[in-house]
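ok, trying the design again with the full structure, not the truncated one.
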């Protein structure tokens, strides 16, 4: 099912007591995990990522609650939990309505869970990234909860500053609480440092895709970014692409947690994986050699760092 169907069940008090939440929006997965498990006097056990232990999880659902109420189990992981484990944990919920189990899967293999538990009462819910209207509504609701006076037009601007990332926009509301009045666009521009204002990654992608980058470069420099840091940012980005390239060659598919050390949104993983395969290993070597040499030159005294930076970026586009 999808978010709107789950909302109807919540409204009608007809929800199950076991859930598999998955999809493109980690923000909504987290939001509904909290909503479905916010019960007072409950015995709560959470597993995040590599913490999962089946025997401990099973024991938690099989024993009486320490508080005489509900036993709640939450497993949040980018890696898939074995289907046989999930079946057993769900069975404990079917046998005991005082149990609640939420499996919040943040990986990219969504097809696995669309029809995985059709014969059980488990509610499998896929969450897509919110569209513009949904994003505005979500931020608006969060603003009401935090008592921040902000209208939809200003919320739209806030979302634009953060490239429509609902999670980041909601987090900014805490900053905006300092104003004991209606929030204006000027307030946001004064307080919020947005991804859309200076997005180094987008700038680097333009370079690597051989697009014109001069306007973005000027904007970045005008916002006070240092030439050396731009070079080191490109080096770091290329190193990540190299790691993606090698990992995919060995394993066949990317895994952000193993490559980067942290989970990343699906679109970011797919984008970096695709871009990484555009370059041969020898090209990665040449690019790193160029960047390290340019960084060393910039750190010498009495040099025009801007000129070195520009010539380096042009040379990058010639090498790829």
């Amino acid at each position: 099912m999808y978010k709107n169907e789950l909302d109807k069940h919540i409204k009608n008090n007809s929800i199950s007591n076991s859930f598999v939440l998955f999809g493109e929006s980690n923000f909504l997965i987290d939001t509904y995990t909290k909503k479905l498990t916010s019960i007072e006097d409950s015995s709560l056990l959470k597993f995040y990522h590599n913490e999962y232990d089946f025997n401990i999880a099973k024991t938690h659902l099989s024993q009486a609650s320490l508080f005489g109420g509900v036993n709640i189990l939450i497993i949040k992981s980018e890696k898939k939990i074995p289907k046989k484990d999930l079946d057993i944990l769900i069975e404990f919920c079917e046998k005991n309505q005082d149990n609640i189990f939420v499996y919040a899967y943040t990986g990219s293999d969504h097809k696995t869970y669309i029809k995985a538990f059709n014969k059980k009462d488990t509610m499998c819910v896929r969450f897509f990234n919110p569209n513009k209207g949904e994003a505005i509504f979500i931020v608006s609701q969060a603003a009401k909860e935090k008592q921040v006076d902000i209208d939809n037009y200003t919320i739209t601007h806030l979302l634009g500053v953060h490239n429509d990332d609902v999670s980041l926009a909601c987090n900014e509301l805490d900053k905006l609480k300092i104003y004991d009045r209606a929030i204006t666009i000027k307030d946001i521009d004064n307080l919020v440092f947005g991804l859309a204002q200076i997005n180094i990654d987008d700038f680097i992608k333009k370079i690597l895709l051989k697009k014109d980058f001069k306007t973005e470069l000027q904007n970045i420099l005008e916002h006070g970014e240092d030439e050396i840091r731009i070079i080191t940012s490109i080096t770091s980005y290329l190193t990540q692409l190299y790691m993606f390239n090698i990992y995919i060659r060995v394993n066949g598919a990317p895994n952000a947690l193993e490559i980067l050390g942290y989970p990343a949104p699906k679109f970011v993983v797919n984008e970096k994986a695709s871009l990484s395969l555009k370059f041969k290993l020898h090209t990665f070597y040449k690019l790193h050699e160029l960047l390290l040499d340019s960084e060393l030159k910039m750190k010498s005294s009495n040099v025009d760092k801007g000129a070195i930076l520009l010539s380096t970026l042009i040379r990058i586009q010639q090498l790829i």
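Keeping the full-length input from now on. The first strand starts at residue 18 and ends at 23.
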